[in-house]
Amino acid sequence: MFATIMKMLLRRLLVAIPTLLVVAALLFVVLRLLPVDPAAMSLPPNATNDEVAAMREAMGLNRPLPVQFLIWLGQLLSGDFGMSIAFRRPVWDLVSEALPATIELAFLSMIVATVVGVAGGLLAFYFRDRTAEAAIDFSSIVVLSLPEFLWALMLMLIFGVWLQWLPFMLRLDPQFERPVITGFLLLDTLLAGRPDAFMSALRHMILPVMALGISASPAIMRVLRSSLLDTYQEDYIHQARLRGLDERRVLLRHGLKNAFLPTLSLMGVQFGFLFGGTLLVEVIFSYPGLGNLMIDAIRNVDLPVIQIVGLAYCIMVLVISTVVDMLYLVLNPKLRVR
Amino acid sequence: MTSELSRRHLLQIMGIGFGAATLNLGAAAPARAQDKDSVVIAWPSDVPSWDPSQRTQPDAQPIYKLIFEQPVMQDPDLNFIPGLFTEWSLAEDGLSLTFKLREGVTFHDGSPLTAEDIRFNWYERVQESLGGGNKLDIANTWKNVTDVTLDGDHAGTFHFSQPMPTAVQWLSFMANFVVPKAYIEQVGIEGFREKPVGTGPYKLTEYQVNSRMVFERNEDYWGEKPAIRNVVINVIKDPSARAAAVQSGQADLTINIPVRETQRLDQTPGLAAELNPVQRVILVQVRHDTATADQNLRLALHHAIDKEALSKAFYGGAAVPLTLPVTPGSPGDVEGLTFAYDPEMSRQLLAASGYGPDKPARVRMATTNGHFPSDFDIARALVGMWKEVGIETELETIEYAKYFELNRGNQLPDLTLYSWENATADPEIFIGYMLNPDMPFAAWRGEEPGNRIRELFQTANYEERIKGYQDLNKTVLEMGASIPLLQSVQTLVRKEDLNYTKYKNGWILAQTMSWS
Questions:
Q1: Nearest CA distance, B357 vs chain A (angstrom)
Q2: Cβ contacts (< 8 Å) between B4 and chain A: which residues?
Q3: Chain B: residue whose CA lies nearest to A183
Q4: Which of B18, B137, B322, B510 is most exposed, with minimal Cβ within 10 Å?
Q5: Domains detected in chain B
Q6: Cβ neighbours around B256 below 10 Å, total
Q7: For residue B432, which of B141, B17, B102 has the smallest C-alpha distance?
C-alpha cells in the first residue's frame, strides 16, 4: 500500500505544479487588469508624478505583462514574496503569522462538521421513515440554508452578548501573553506549559469553530444517510445479518464503513469550502487569520498580499484534496488493487 | 429496522461530542475585560507600521502616542503645549525655528534623548526618504528643511529654504514623532519596526498583526505616570462586533460604531455612550475643469443640500452642518457666515446655465463605502437631493486608497465625497491642503484660489495668515470650489466607571484613563 500511496503522491505533485502556475498566472493577470497602479500605491499620497514613474520603472511595471509575471515568479521561487503596501512589512511575515490560525480554525471546524454530520446522518438513517427523520431533515435544511456568517452573528449574539458564556473576539483573554513557538496557538500554549492559556484559546475558538462547523455539517449528514440507504440494499448486509451479527455491528462494521467512502470525498470538498468560509467568519470574530488578512488587503488594494494569500488558499485546497485521496486509498481496498 | 441497535447506543455515540462541548461551555468563565490596573480597548484598525513617521493614518495616532512622543503636544482644547520641546520660537521671516529640548528624557532602551535625535528625525530621515530610501509620509512636509543645527545636547535650530509658518503645528501633527537615532542605527529600520522604542508613557510588550497590542506602563517616564498599568488594544474592524465587545464586557471602550448602536448602548446599564464632534470635516471635493467648471452648477449643487437633514439621518443630529471647509470655532472659521439650503435658488442657478426639466444637469460623483461612518448613505442622500432640483448624478464607489491615484492621473469624477482630518485645526491643514493645486489632496486644481494659497504658505505672520485663510474660505464658498457638509462626530462607548480625557480632535489616549 505504501508504494501505491507514494505513486499517488507523486502524481498529485505533478498535477499540483501546473495547477499552482495557472492559479498564480490568473491571480497575477486579474490583479494587473484592475485599474490600480501598484507603484503609486507603494508611495506616500503626496509623492510626485516623477517619483511614481521612477517607482514604476523600479518595479518593472513598464515591461510587458508576461515578463512582469516571470519576474514575480522568479522572486517567489527565490523566497521573495514582496512587501505589503499597507503594512510595509514582508508579505511572508504577515502570511506566516496568519496561516496557522486559519489552519487551526478550519481543522477544528471540520472536526465539528464531521461529528455533527456523521451523528446526524446516523440518526436520520436510524429513524428513517419516522417523524424523527422528517424533523432531522427539516433541521438540516434550515442549517444548510443559513450561511456561516449568519451562524457566526447568531452565536455571537446568543453566547457572547446575551448569555456572556463565551468570548468572541480574538484568540486569548487579555491577561495571557501569547507564546510563539510553532505559530499554532493551541499547540504553543501546551508546549509553553500554560494549560490556562490553552483553555482560554480554546474558549475563544468555540464560537467561530461552531459557526463554520455547523454550517458545513448538513451536507455530510445528507450524503451519509443517502449512502447508508444504498449500502443497506447490498447483499453483504443481508449476509451479515444472516451470519447473526447484531444490527449495531452490521451498521458500524459493514454499513458505515462502506457508506463512509462517498462521505469522505464530500468532506474533502467541504473542507475546501470551509477554508473559503473562514473569510467572513474571521472578520466577524476579529480572528487573526488569512481571511482577515485577505479582507484587509482587498480593502487597501494591497496587491502583493492578495496574490500570496490567494496562492496560500490554493495550496491548502491542494493539500486537503491530496490527504483525502490518501485516506480514500487507505479505506478503499478496490483502489489499492488497481 | 428490526433493531438490536438500541437507541441508547446511538445516543451514546453522538453524546460524546455534544457532552464534551457542554462541559466546555459550563467550564467557560464569563469573559470580563475589566481589571482596575488594566484597560481593554476595541480599536477599528491596526497601525500600518511601527515606524510612526511612515504613514499618516489618523486612527493610528492615539496608539503611537502611547509609545512615542512629539516635540510639541496639544492639550484637550488643542492649544499647543510643550512636549519634548520645552521652548520654541519661529523666526519672523518663518525661515528658522529654534528649540530647547527637554532634559532627563530617556528612550525605553535607557538611552538619553538628545538634539541629535531631533536632527535625525527632521533632517536625516527626511533627506533619506526624499533621496528614494525608506519612504516617509512626512518627508514632503519637511522637504524645505536645509538643516537642523545643534546648540549642545538640548537645543538647536531648524533652517528652512522657504518660510514654514506652520512648523509648530506640523511638529504636533500626525506622524511627527521622535524615534531614537542610536537605536535605529544599531538594529536597523526593520529591527526598529519589530521592536519599537520611544520615550512615551507605555512600552510595547506584545504585538500580533491585525489582532492585538499589549502595552505596559513605562515606569521611567519623565512626565506624570499613567494611572493604568496595562493597556490592551484589540483590533476589531467590524463596527457591530466592536459594539458587541463592549456590551458583553469583553472590551472597556470602543469608538466609531454606528450612531444607532451608540444610542442603544447608552441605555445599557453600566455603559456610557457619547457622540463627540471632532476635527474632521465631511465635504464634497469639486473639480474645476469638468462639468463642474460651471460656477452656477457648483452653487446649485451646494444650495440643494439640506445639511441638517443629513446630520439627523446619519449622525443623530450631532454632526454640525458646515458653511466653510473648516471646523466651527477653529482659526479659519468666519463667525456668522451662512450658506442657505435653498432648492429654489438651485433651480434658478441651473436655469441660468441653460439646464431645465428637458435638459437636466449631469454630474458624476465618487464615494467611499465604509471609509467613514455613513459615507455611502450620505452620497446616496445627496444624489436624491440633487435629483429634486434637476441634477442627475452617476454615483460610483471607490476605495479610499485609490483616491490619490485617480487624482494624480486626473481621473476623478466631477465630485468626490471626502473626509479630511486635521487634529491641529490650523486652516493651512484644512483648505491650504484640500484646495492646493500643488498637493495630491486637491481635486480642484484651478489657479484660483491656488495662487492665494501659495502666497499664504509663505506668510509667516500668524494674524495675517489666519486673516488670509478666513478671506480665502469666503472666496471658496462664493466660488463653490468646495462643498462643505458636516463636522464629523466620533462615536464612543465605554464602561461608565472608566474615565478618560476628551480631546477636541478625537484623540483617545489610554494615558489619560483611570477607573472610578
A1: 36
A2: 246-248
A3: B208
A4: B18
A5: 69-194 (3.90.76.10), 277-490 (3.10.105.10)
A6: 19
A7: B141
